[in-house]
Design brief:
Number of strands: 19
Radius of gyration: 21 Å
Largest sheet: 8 strands, mixed
Bound molecules: flavin-adenine dinucleotide
CATH superfamily of the largest domain: D-Amino Acid Oxidase, subunit A, domain 2
Helix content: 25-40%
CATH class of the largest domain: Alpha Beta
Strand content: 25-35%
Order of helices and strands: EHEEHEEHEHEEHEEEEHHEHEEEHEEEHH
Length: 392
């Protein structure tokens, strides 16, 4: 009979690595299992950078998690001498006429302003002339307007996972990588987790399986989630002078509701000219699975991305795509997160904070998951429940 763990964590990506570390630092006996060896490029947490913003247009209820995440990352940086978070500011841009939705939200700029007010974030509203004067790397249209704050920026997802797993291990967590969970079930006050290598018992189970989650759930719960293919691109600047205009001290992260079908967002350059400048759009139509997804961006996709979304708005970038990566969203209607106990098994916690905006909250959510699993007091998360109709 294998030992009984306090908590087993299924999936050690953004959320699972944060939870495993938070559990280990509380002295819990932790078992973490991952089918790959995180950080890796098969799920939702790769591609060098993630936008972080305290004013979340998706809803003011998210601000507390990102704020707590910033505190946790700053403490980790001080402890380990690593650089996880860069707060170089964010510009949210919209304008006249029909604009692309951001995470399904039409008035994303107004929603961001509202969230900033509620969270007490200082911000400035800029008209087109002010944006042109301050940010020459963008090509704005007459009538474009912007929201700018200085507390947003970007965070390094792979490094966050790496250091959280390292700290978890140092604090005694048992982490099994390249081991796949095939099933789990709750019986007699314990959860048993079966993998391709063995069976383990734990008092609580956190399921943080990212885009693999629907495969592990009953069909009526799996239906809540939609897995979509997303492409990240790195385009080369036209020359050294253009590249310099993308440096983090001159160029913020941005979310731009452009007059085209899809929103665009992007980052400053985090390396030299040959490392490119990262930009992406979002699509919600093409559903997929981690097993069947096409993991290569086609030449046509790259050309269309440049012609529709890069060249017209960021003229300093050339059509040379240095690299691209495929990543997966686990989408819930309303850009919602699901963080809830399994409707029928109270010792199993399901954590799917994605919908394309989860990473910035991951350190805070890891802490929350540890609190839930260990029966500690925690923040109200009733808004992240499975749809009540599923429970009935
Ligand atoms: C293209 C893209 C851009 C994004 N941009 C942003 C952004 O700018 N800002 C932001 O805040 N968020 C962003 N997000 C969202 C954010 O990255 C996700 O919310 C977050 O990465 C989700 O983490 P996760 O832990 O749920 O999943 P993952 O990190 O994918 O982890 C799931 C883990 O579970 C493991 N696993 C799965 N099944 C099994 C099994 N059966 N047995 C064992 N292990 C298993 C996997 O191997 C994996 O390691 C973006 C996401 C994508 C895809």
């Amino acid at each position: 009979m294998s030992p009984t763990y306090d908590v087993a964590v299924l999936g050690l990506g953004a959320m699972g690595s944060a939870a495993a570390w938070q559990l280990a630092r509380r002295g819990a006996r932790v078992l973490g299992i991952d089918r790959h060896a995180p950080p890796h490029e098969f799920g939702s947490t790769h591609g060098d950078t993630r936008v972080t913003r305290i004013a979340c247009g998706e809803g003011p209820e998210y601000s507390a998690f990102v704020r707590r995440s910033h505190e946790i990352w700053r403490a980790l940086e001080a402890e380990l001498g690593v650089e996880l978070l860069t707060q170089n500011g964010m510009l949210v841009i919209s304008g006249k006429g029909e604009r692309a939705l951001s995470h399904g939200i039409d008035a994303f700029l107004a929603a961001t302003v509202d969230a900033a007010r509620q969270a007490g974030v200082e911000y400035t509203l800029l008209d087109t002339a002010a944006m042109r004067a301050r940010f020459p790397a963008f090509r704005f249209s007459d009538g474009d307007e912007g929201y700018l704050d200085r507390v947003s920026g970007f965070v390094r997802p792979e490094l966050c996972i790496e250091v959280q797993l390292r700290r978890a291990r140092e604090l005694g967590a048992e982490l099994h990588v390249n081991e796949t969970v095939t099933s789990f079930r709750q019986k007699d006050g314990l959860v048993s987790v079966t993998t391709d290598k063995g069976t383990y018992q734990a008092k609580q189970l956190i399921v943080s399986a990212g885009p693999w989650l629907p495969q592990l759930l009953e069909p009526e719960l799996a239906r809540t989630f939609k897995i979509t293919r997303q492409v990240l691109y790195w385009f080369r600047a036209r020359d050294a002078a253009a590249h310099a205009r993308f440096s983090p001290d001159r160029f913020p992260v941005y979310i731009w509701q452009v007059p085209a079908p899809q929103v665009i967002y992007g980052f400053p350059a985090t390396g030299g000219i040959d490392e490119g400048v990262k930009i992406a759009s979002e699509q919600y139509e093409l559903e997929t699975t981690p097993e069947t997804v096409d993991r290569t961006a086609s030449k046509q996709e790259i050309r269309e991305m440049y012609e529709t979304y890069v060249g017209p708005f960021l003229p300093g970038l050339s059509p040379v795509c240095i690299k691209s990566k495929i990543c997966l969203y686990t989408w819930v209607d309303g850009a919602r997160f699901i963080i809830d106990r399994h409707p029928e098994h109270d010792r199993i916690i399901i954590a799917s904070p994605c919908s394309g905006h989860g990473f910035k909250h991951s350190a805070g959510i890891g802490e929350l998951l540890a609190q839930m699993a260990l029966g500690e007091t925690h923040r109200d998360i009733s808004m992240f429940r499975f749809d009540t109709r599923i429970r009935a």
